[in-house]
Amino acid sequence: MKNQPTSRTAHTPLSRLKIENLKSKMTPSILAILAALVPLFAWLIRRHINHEDDPYNQHAEKREALAKEIIQDDETAANRTWCLSASRLDERTKK
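Structure (tokenized):
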């Protein structure tokens, strides 16, 4: 009794036929899914490569450049004010 196959583990020619039939039906389905995913991946790769051309990124870079320019101008103005204050202080101390 130990070596007798049970109904769950028995592999009859009919069950093999069902498995082979299922595999043959699944292959085109899997290929169709993969064929649908290939253009998606190509689009994602192109989008990633062209990310620099994105209008949002261009706008963000422009804002960042303007902010740097404002900071630079503020530093220049602050240095100019400090130099004027220092020169005024020197004039007062020399008198």
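Helices lie at 13-49, 55-94. The chain has two domains: 13-53, 54-95.
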